[in-house]
Amino acid sequence: MSAPRPAGDLFSLKGRTAIVTGASSGLGARFASVLAQAGATVFAAARRIDRLKSLADSDARIHPVACDVAVESDRTRLVETALTVTGRIDILVNNAATSGETRAEDESADAFTDVLGVNLTAPFHLARLTAEAPASGGRSIINVSSILGLVSAAPLGGASYSASKAGLIGLTRELAGQWGRSGTRVNALAPGWFRTEMTADLFGDERSSRWVERNTLLHRGGDGHELDGALLFLASDASSYCTGQVLTIDGGWTAR
Question: Three-state SS for 130?
C-alpha cells in the first residue's frame, strides 16, 4: 500500500535521479528540462555533447553525458556515471531514436537491423541496467514510442521505424509484467505529430502540413510543451498505480 501525498506534491521529483537519452534536441531536450524543473537531477545523454552542455548551462541540475546508445559500452557508462554521482536511478526516459527509409523497398536488411538496435535493443538494455540499480522508492521507466507503433501513417513512416516503435510497446508491457513485484513501473509515451527537428521537413511543406491538420481531430500539430504533463505524470508518484500502459498524446490522430 502506498501512502497518499498532498496534491501539490504529486508531480514533484525532488531528490530523484533521472536519465534522458536523445537529449540534445527536440523532445529529448524538453524532457530533460522539464524533469529538472520538477526537481530531479538529470543525466542528459546524446552524441552531440556541445548541445548537451548548452542545455546544462540552463539548469545546474542537468548533467551532460556523451553517449551513443547504439554502443553497448556507452550505455553501461551512462548508467555508471549516474550511479557514481547520485547512487541511484529513479527515472529512465528512453527517448533516443533514429528513422529509416520511408519506403520498405528502399531499406536493406542491415539498415533495418540498425534502426532496431537504436530504437529497441538500446532501450531494453538501459531499462535492464536501470532496473538493477538502486532507487529511492518506486522506479519509473518511460519508453518513448510513437503513434506509428499503433497505426500506419503511410505514405509517411517507415517499416523499421514503425516496427521498432510497436516493439517498444510490446517490450513495455512485458517488462511491466516482469518487474511489477519489485515496484518498477514501465509505461510508454506515444506522441503524435509534434514540431521537432526530426519533423521540420514535414511541417515545412505546406501539403504535408495540411495533411497533418486534416487528419488530426484538433486540426494542428503538437508543440513540445504539450507533452510536459504526460511526462511528469508517468515519471512521478501521480502515476504510482499505472504500469504497462501506453499514453497516447496525438491531438486525436488515432481516435479517427
Answer: helix
- Nine cell digits for residue 180: 511489477
The helix (H) or strand (E) run that includes residue 46 is strand 41-46
Cell of 175: 517488462
In this structure, the number of other CB atoms found within 10 A of the CB of residue 155 comes to 9
Q: What is the pLDDT of residues 228-244, one digit of tens each?
A: 999 999 999 999 999 99
Judged against a pLDDT cut of 70, whether residue 1 lies above it is answered with no
pTM for this model (two decimals): 0.95
Annotated catalytic residues are 161
Task: Give how far the C-alpha of residue 242 lies from the chain's centroid of Cα atoms, to the nearest Å.
Answer: 17
Question: Residue 26: what residue type?
Answer: G
Measured between its terminal Cα atoms, the distance across the chain in Å is 39
Instruction: Name the helix (H) or strand (E) containing 17.
Output: strand 17-21
Query: 85 and 63 in contact (C-beta within 8 Å)?
Result: yes
CB-CB contact of 10 with 32 (8 Å) = no
Q: Is the dihedral of CA 45, 51, 54, 59 positive or negative?
A: negative
With DSSP H G I counted as helix, E B as strand and the rest as coil, what are the percentages for the chain, rounded to 5? 50, 15, 35
Nearest to 20 by CA among 9, 7, 33: 33
DSSP string, 184-222: EEEEEEEE-SB-SSTTHHHHHSHHHHHHHHHHSTTSSPB
Domains and CATH numbers, the chain: 13-238 (3.40.50.720)
* Among 30, 33, 66, CA closest to 48: 66
